[in-house]
Amino acid sequence: MSESILSIAKTHVLDFLPKAHDVKGFAFPTTRHEAWKYTRLGVITNNEWHVVPAGNTTAVANTIEVVNGYYEVGSLPAGVRIEQAGSLSKPMQERMVRMIQAAGTKDIFDAAFQHACTDALVIHISKGTVIEGNIHINFTITENEGMAAPALFVFAETHAQVDFTCEWKTGVGRTLHLPQFFFELEAEARVRFYQLQNTGSDEIILLREHVQQGPHSHFAISTITANAAWVRNELTIVVDGEGCESDLSGAYFPRGTQLVDNHTCVDHRVPHCNSNELYKGVMFERSKGVFNGKVFVRPDAQKTNAFQTNANIMMSDDATINTKPELEIYADDVKCSHGSTTGQFDEEALFYLRARGLGEESAKMLLVSAFTSDVLERIHNDEWHDYVREVLMGYELITE
Amino acid sequence: MLKIENLRARIEEKEILKGLSIEVGPGEVHAIMGPNGSGKSTLASVLAGREDYEVTDGSVSFNGKDLLEMAPEVRSREGLFLAFQYPVEIPGVSNMNFLKAAVKEVRKHRGLDELTAKEFLALVKEKSKLVELDGQLANRAVNEGFSGGEKKRNEIFQMAMLDPSLCILDETDSGLDIDALRIVSNGVNAMRDGKRSFLVITHYQRLLDHIVPDFVHVLYKGRIVKSGTKELALELEERGYDWIKETVDAQ
Question: Which residues of A touch B73 (CB under 8 A)?
């Protein structure tokens, strides 16, 4: 069954990347594996995937186009330096290898990423640089049954500040996005990464994000899944410097037979850090949702404040959600909480709105908008916030 | 305007309205009083279209149309307004956006042009004055964190915005202090124009000092057992409900 992904093993161009030496040694995980208990892989294993050649594209200023896993970078603001596969210095290659090795080769998807990764981009935000506006990244795959596994590295140096906006856009037919992102924040740096998953209805995203935070750094990430056949976001944040802030948020609105799976992990290793996590789901029709939120508070991580919430509303009797908070706390002077709710609509609220003249559908949409508004409010970029809302309104998921 | 005939309704297996009849003409104010558990709030809920209740018999005609056939939102657009006994808090939905959508739907149904943003704001300003509603409240989430009095004033404000032909006030006086009661009543009275009708449901007579009814009905065990003019309310205030209960139970 795994032959389809393995066929890409010969195509890689980034020779310096570590390789799981024998991809065939990995089988696809099954629902017997704890990490994949609720997430079936049929949509991946039942298809033939091939690595797609670079497409023709140009990128406008402040924009990065990632087509078929190859980067095309527009002019970027002063203070931003990029390195791309082909022009990577030896020390940078070694640094990347170390980071990929630290992330580990856990399963066939890590192995496949290492073998199918045809391009890598490194973005340095220089010391003290505060980027006005945002850098935008688009991901697309332009061939049916094409797969792409780009690597993205973001290094925010001391006191640097940058906002990214990122959209997965409609490509051609069935596609498989298999990217991995690596973020390193030095002391006092701030990186905000706002992404919108908005592909065609047959496209798949399996995204692995690795974040390393230095002292007093601030990392915020917002992942809004508007449309895709199957999405799994694995986000790991290692909080390794004191005084850090980590904000994780996401909203998902799966419809039909779509699946959205968010696996997050915040690893508090040092004292005096705050993490705040808020994910919300609106489950339609026969969709499936998975949320798994790990929080580790290591013995040294005293005075940690770690909060996690996952809330879901079921719009249909046929939808399912599996939600699991996993807090492991080994320090005694901490404030940690988690909350998980799954429910139907508040019928009283629905009746109240209808009794004032709103139709049932628009009343529901208004309640969905209200339910997810606090997630969208975590996008501290007005233009992007409005754009995400517009996209969601386009699918008639939320209303003004 | 409103004609209820032999209305029977139940919730799950329990019959609550047992053949209730009442007729409200244009411009009339009818008070419905009754002891706890007599079916007052059920009547309000059935008229507004709450789905928990099943109508098993009888009919309700509203401006000549079959009210019971209509979805709750259609009833509202047709001109029926229920001021809730317990207005619902809806975090995340702004009062303004909600009202804008509601006014739009209602006007569309009635064949009226959509209000411009400016006209809408002018209307909000005018109607919020009726109940001395602070402009700040209008901008908050629907009823969220409102005091009891603010919630009831918000109900009357919404009522004024939607310009109904029949207003049903379900225990609007409950939880109100004297000042709030006066403000809410003034708001209601300002809407009395000789054409608009009111069904005022209350346990106590005190609301009727402020909103003076044309007719008073006593609801007991799911039926109207006594009707009269405003003097009946005063008599109930003085004598309580027991003498009515005894008379009915003896029959």
Answer: 354-355, 357-360, 363
- Residues within 8 A of B (CB atoms), A 324-363 only: 346, 348-349, 351-360, 362-363
Half-sphere exposure of A347 (CA within 13 A, CB side): 5
How confident is the model over A111-155, as pLDDT tens digits?
Answer: 889 888 889 999 999 999 999 999 999 999 999 999 999 999 999
- Residues B21-51: tens digit of each pLDDT: 999 999 999 999 998 889 999 999 999 999 9
Distance CA A139, CA A384 (A): 16
Quote the CA–CA distance of A40 and A57 in Å, as a whole number: 34
Q: Does domain B2-250 have CATH number 3.40.50.300?
A: yes
| CA distance linking residue B112 with residue A39, whole number of Å | 51
CA atoms within 13 A on the CB side of A190: 12
ipTM of the prediction greater than 0.85, yes or no:
yes
Of B51, B91, B105, which has the smallest distance from its Cβ to A357's Cβ?
B105
Residues A113/A149, Cβ–Cβ less than 8 Å: yes
Put simply, whether A373 touches B (Cβ < 8 Å) is yes
Residue of chain A with shortest Cα separation from B101: A358
Residue whose tokens read 């009275």: B189
User: What distance, in Å, lies between the first and last C-alpha atoms of chain B?
Assistant: 32
Q: Rounded distance, CA B175 to CA B189, Å? A: 20
H or E element that contains A326: strand A320-329
- The DSSP letter of residue B68 is G
* pTM for the structure as a whole: 0.88
Map out the domains of chain A as residue ranges: 3-349, 350-400
Element (H, E) at A321: strand A320-329
Interatomic CA distance for residues A114 and A5, integer angstroms:
12
Q: Which residues partner with A211 through β-bridges? A: A183, A237
